[in-house]
Design a protein that fits this description.
- The chain contains 11 helices and 8 strands.
- With 324 residues, it is α/β, with parallel strands linked by helices.
- The chain has 2 domains: 245 residues, Rossmann fold (3-Layer(aba) Sandwich), CATH 3.40.50; 61 residues, no CATH class.
- It has an 8-stranded mixed beta sheet with strand order 1-2-4-3-5-6-7-8, with helices on both faces.
- The longest helix has 18 residues.
- The model has no long low-confidence stretch (mean pLDDT 92).
Length: 324
Amino acid sequence: MRTKEIIFDRKANTSLKLYLQEELFESQPIEKRPFILVIPGGGYSFCSEREGEPIALSFLSKGYHAGVLHYHVGEHRHFQKALSDGQKAMELLQECAEEWQIDRHKIAVIGFSAGGHLAAAMSTMLATKPALCLLGYPAILSSFSEVMGISAPSLEECVTSDTPPTFLFSTFEDSIVPIENSLLYLRALEENDVPFESHIFQKGPHGLSLATKWYRTSDEVTDERFARWFPFAMEWMESQWEEQEKGNEFSTREIIDIPIFQLVKEAENQQVLQRFFPSWQDPSRFKLVKRLNLKQLRRMIPDQMTNERFEQLIDGLNRPKEEH
């Protein structure tokens, strides 16, 4: 492993610290690796050490390159400047991907608490977004921004269909960042058809980090069940990279096998489907069927989908240009 630190603002102590893999003599060479950008929490007052390097090293042990972002906090706290720190990091990782042997299509971000706030902001507000977003007990709501002493929007309102797939973990018992923050963000992801996986553990206080005894501040922040978030996250990320490598499957999939919510991304398809099913103009009704494909729908309502009517519907639809 080699480390490297890029200073953004020496006065504000902002930087990107890199932990880069080096090829071992006896190992099979790997040209490029995924990268995870770690954003510690600390309420925009400081950057938690427990949510920085230990997280980076955990991903490093799984073969990833990693980096820790130190952003504007404390007396220099400022949301837009912190977001700019995140943007600088993302742009730098893209620019130096070849030199650092990073797969530029596999750059993920993980943030905890206030760092989760910044990670979610980067995933919803930046032009250069991470490929995947992982959020640990994140602060999301604008009301919490006031508590942290920054001016920022409610991030659930910033979610769009361009928001990257998201992995979120938190606890029901969190008394510092109420679970409402996570639930409203998850709802926004669902409403915008952004794939996500979530693990809401019942037990555990705020700020558990890896939840192991090696990085605890007290016995309360050691929790074997919560510690499972890390292997869960690794499994999820690997499955996302596998899907990414498969590429766009629309060229080989029949139009009747494509989910309805994907079909209606084409305006003409939306008009055709609403003409056949007028009740789908009601979002609450459309929500009931949007994840079905037409083959499944036909099985559910055979009386409404005669052969002739089904063929007319298929003839009127166009294949979507790309999948989310």
